[in-house]
Amino acid sequence: MNIAQSSPLYEYWNSDQDENDDKKRLLMLNHKEPASNLFRNEPYKWENLYQSVLKNVISGDDSSIKGLMVLLSTISKKEKDIVLNSLEDLLDKHVIYKLRNVKYKDIKSSKNFYTALRILLTIFFNPYDLELKKEPKHLYEKTGMFFYKFRKKFYQISEI
Fold first, then answer.
1. What percent of the chain has pLDDT over 70?
2. For position 8, what pLDDT does the model report?
3. Angle of helix 139-158 relative to helix 43-58, nearest 10 degrees?
4. What's the domain range around 128?
5. How far apart are alpha carbons 126 and 28 in whole angstroms?
6. Backbone phi and psi for residue 29, each to the nearest 5 degrees, phi listed first
7. How many domains does the chain divide into?
8. Where residue 91 falls among pLDDT bands split at 50, 70, 90?
9. Which end of the chain has fewer CB atoms < 10 Å from its terminal CB, N or C?
10. How many helices (H) and strands (E) does the chain have?
């Protein structure tokens, strides 16, 4: 399993993203978590953050574990368990244990300007080729779709 496939939104990105798909996506929501507004209202941003932060954790960046914990807290316990089971092949057992059993509020944050900048650029440039099938609302969604379409056209031209 790869990073994209481990995401609770994997099926959503491969769907028509219509009203029924949105309802299915919202069933995964943890309504008790304040940060769940991100998952509810901005799935494009949530997914970019998820893949970026998970990539950092896989590469050994322990300071990104708290970010992954926050993102996983926005989905229901059932969905979180499904995600964590799928991540067992990608992450160290100690990290999985932490993600399952430690509350993110109990972990001290470390500020890393480089990581924050990289994640911000990820949201605007859409390196994970997420396709929004609805009209983009936010500037980062518009730039992300621009780069998605540009890469798609570029790859089509290069294959000729």
1. 98
2. 97
3. 70
4. 3-158
5. 23
6. -70, 140
7. 1
8. very high
9. C
10. 10, 0
